[in-house]
C-alpha cells in the first residue's frame, strides 16, 4: 500500500511542476475575484435591494400585485423577487428576505464548476496520454509495479485534483463573498422551486449539497476524458472530445428527446442538481435512475481504461 | 562462464501479419557487455521492448535471473534497468526530481543512493536544473543514472551513443565497461554502428530482419585482425616494394597498380614515415576491413551501414 501512496505522490509532483497547472489555478482565482467585483459594482447581478424592513410582508405583497397586474410589464421595486409563488411562500411561512450575501455568491459560483470540469478534463486527459507523448511511459512501466496500480494511482490523482479545485472554488468564493457582501445571511433560509413546488432549506447545507452533486458531473466527465486518453493515448483527442461532449451534452439530449432511449444518454443524467432544484430533463427519471445509469457508464469507462492501458503494447511513436 | 543472467527463448513478435522478430535465442552473462548490432529497422528496439515487458511477445519467453518476464513480471523486471530508445525524462522537472520519481517506484532506494548515482554519472553540478535545459549527452547520463538506481543485474541501453559527440561516446563507453568489469553487471547495448560496438562490447550479436545471424566474440575478432591488410598507391613502384619488404619483412602484392601487404596496425605510421624519408611519393593508403567488418557488411549489405 505504501508504494501506492508513493505513486500518488509522484503524480502530484509531476502535476504541480507543470506551469499549466498553476495557470489554471490562477485563472480560477481571477474569475472568482472578478465575479465578486462585478457583482459588487453592478447591482443588476445581485437583484438590487431586498425588502428587509419591518413591514417586508406588505412590501412583498405589493410586489406580487405589481407582478400580476395586467397593464404591461411592471416596473417592480425589487428585481430580485420576481417569483410570485416564492414571495407568497415567504409571506405564509414568515421567511424574511435577506440582502444578497456570501451564500448567494457561493451558490451562484457553482456555475464555475464548468471551468473546474474543463481543467479537470485537461488533467485527466494528460495524466496518461502525456506520458506517451513525452516518451516517459517507457521508463514508467519498466518498474516492479503492475500497470493496474500505476493506472489507478493516476486516476486517484485526477480525483484528488478535481476535489481540490472544487474545494478551492467553494472556499475562495466564500472568502471573496464574505469580504464583498458580508456574512449576515449565514443561517438564512433559501426559498426555491422544484417541480412546481416551493420549498425552503438552510442555505449553507443546501449549497454544500449542490457542490457535492456537481462533483458527480465533474467526475463523470473526468473519467470519460481519462478513458479516451488511456484508449487512444492522445491528449488532444481526449481533451477535445470530452470538452465537445461537455458543451454539446444537453443539446444532444434535446435532439433525441422524443426517442425512448434518450433518457439513457449519459448527459441526461450527469446533472444531479436537476432533481434538487428546477425541473429534470425527463419526467420519467429520478435520482435513483440517474445514479444507476451513471454507475453503468462509470464502470464501462473504467473497464475500457484498464483493458487498454494494461493490455496494449507500448510501441513506438 | 556461470549461469546466464538473461535468456531469450525463441522470442517472436508478429504485428498484424508481419513477423517482425522471428525467433531469437541467446543468453547474456553477468560482467559482459553484449552488443546488439543491426541496421535500422532490424528489430533491436522491438526486441528490447519485449525484454522489458513493454511489448508482449507473440511466442517465446525472456528469463531474467530465472524469472519469466511474461508470467512473473515484477520479479523479473526488478533486476533490470534500462533506456528504451531516447532518454526521455520529464523536461519540466529537475534532474533530481526525475530521479526521485523513479526511486519512489522501487523498494529501498535511499537519498544517499540517488546522490551516489548522480555522482557516478557526473551530474552533481547540474542536477537541480530542469531537464529541459539539459543537452542530449546530459540526458543520456541522467537516463543511465535512473537505470542504475536499484543496482540492476542487467542494464539495457538502446542506442546509448545516438546523437552524442565523440567525447560523450567515449564517456558512455567508459561507464559501461566499468559497470560490467567492476560491478559484474550484464550490459546489453544496441547500435547500428559497428565501430562503436567493437570498442565497447565483449560479444556482438548481429540482427537483421528480425533474425540473429551470428554472435561474435570481439576479442577473438580483434586478435585475428591485429594484423591489417594495407593497400597503397605510390611511385616509384619498385623502390616502394623494396622499401616495404625491408621494413616489414613480408611479401608485397601488386594488383592493378596498388601495392598490398599485411602489417601490425600500430606499425603503419612508422612504415609510412619510412617511405616518405626515402623520397617515395604516396598518393593513397587504405586499411582494408577487419574480419568482423567483412562479416557484418556481408551479412547486412553495404548500403545500410553508416
Ligand atoms: N508498432 C509497429 N507496427 C508495425 N511495425 C512495426 C512497429 N514497430 C516497429 N515495427 C517494424 O519493426 C521493424 C523493427 O523495428 P525496430 O525494432 O524499431 O528496429 P531497430 O530498433 O533495430 O531500428 C521495423 O521494420 C519497423 O518498421
Ligand atoms: Mg531502434
Automatic annotation (TrEMBL), chain A:
One Pfam short name: ABC2_membrane_2
Parts of the chain that traverse the membrane: 20-39, 112-134, 155-183, 203-230, 237-257, 287-309
GO terms of molecular function: ABC-type transporter activity
Coiled-coil annotated residue ranges, if any: none
Superkingdom of the source species: Bacteria
Keywords noted in UniProt: Membrane, Transmembrane, Transmembrane helix
Keyword Secreted (UniProt): no
One GO cellular component term noted in the UniProt record for this chain: plasma membrane
Name of protein: ABC-2 type transport system permease protein
From TrEMBL, chain B:
GO molecular function: ATP binding; ATP hydrolysis activity
Pfam families, per the entry: ABC_tran (PF00005)
Top-level taxon in the UniProt lineage: Bacteria
InterPro entries given in the database record: AAA+_ATPase, ABC_transporter-like_ATP-bd, ABC_transporter-like_CS, P-loop_NTPase
Keywords carried by this UniProt record: ATP-binding, Nucleotide-binding, Transport
Residue span, ABC transporter domain: 6-234
Family classification: Belongs to the ABC transporter superfamily.
UniProt protein name: ABC-2 type transport system ATP-binding protein
